[in-house]
Amino acid sequence: MRPPPLLVRTAAALVVGCVVGALAQLGGGHTGAEAAHGACFSALRLLRHAVATFAARHGHLPGEDAALIERQLTMPRTLSGVPDPAGPLPGLLDAIPTNPFTGSAAIVVVPEGVDAVAFAAAAKAGWAFLAGPGHDRAGPLPVGMVLPCGSSPAGAAGRGVASVQEIAFEIEDFQRWR
């Protein structure tokens, strides 16, 4: 007999929380900014994994509306990906993770034709989602990519949005999850 999905997700969240807490304790030499940077990218990977899992299960990315994206990732769903409390598929996340730089878990959708990194840096939300083709100063960004929102002054350790040099890592990380 398989345990209920909520119990499995709760147990998994507890294990992840314990591991993250233990790593935070072991990494006591990190500054607050370094710890926030690590927490931001851990949350970012979790969110990207949920988006990639949704796309793999349903054959399409979550919706183009921020509220729908949140419901599709956190609520039970039908086989086609429509949020439904009675749906056979459990939510992929208990909740959207909070971005430690902005203190927000809200998702905003990057409008087409806008520099995605600049938009995310100016946004007061937690995460920016590219529902359509995106770009930044360095070139195109993949549809479905999630960027952290917020920024700090240039050169500050652990800023919320990666610099142009770090975007290459972000794209590589995104494609690895996809």
Number of helices: 5
What number is the mean pLDDT? 76
What is the helix content? 40-55%
Largest sheet: 3 strands, mixed
> What is the number of domains?
1
Task: Give the uncertain stretches in residue-range form.
Answer: 6-30, 153-165
**First and last CA, distance:** 31 Å
Q: What's the β-strand tally? A: 5
Written as H for each helix and E for each strand, in order along the chain, the element string is HHHEHEEEEH
What characteristic shape results from the CA principal axes?
globular
Strand numbers in spatial order across the main sheet? 1-2-5
Structural class determined from secondary elements: mainly alpha
Per DSSP, what share of the residues sits in E-state strands of 2 or more residues?
5-15%
- Quaternary form: single chain
Q: Which radius of gyration do the C-alpha atoms yield?
A: 17 Å
Task: Give short descriptive properties of this protein.
178 residues; mainly alpha; 3-stranded mixed sheet; two-stranded antiparallel sheet; 5 helices; globular
Written account of the structure:
The chain is mainly α. The protein has one domain (31-177). Helix content is 44%, strand content 8%. The strands form 2 sheets. The chain has a 3-stranded mixed sheet with strand order 1-2-5, sandwiched between helices. The longest helix is centred in the first third of the chain and has 27 residues, at 32-58. 29% of the residues are buried.
Task: Summarize the topology.
Layout: H1 5-26, H2 32-58, H3 66-74, E1 107-109, H4 116-122, E2 127-129, E3 134-136, E4 139-141, E5 146-148, H5 164-177
Parallel strand pairs: 1-2
Antiparallel strand pairs: 2-5, 3-4
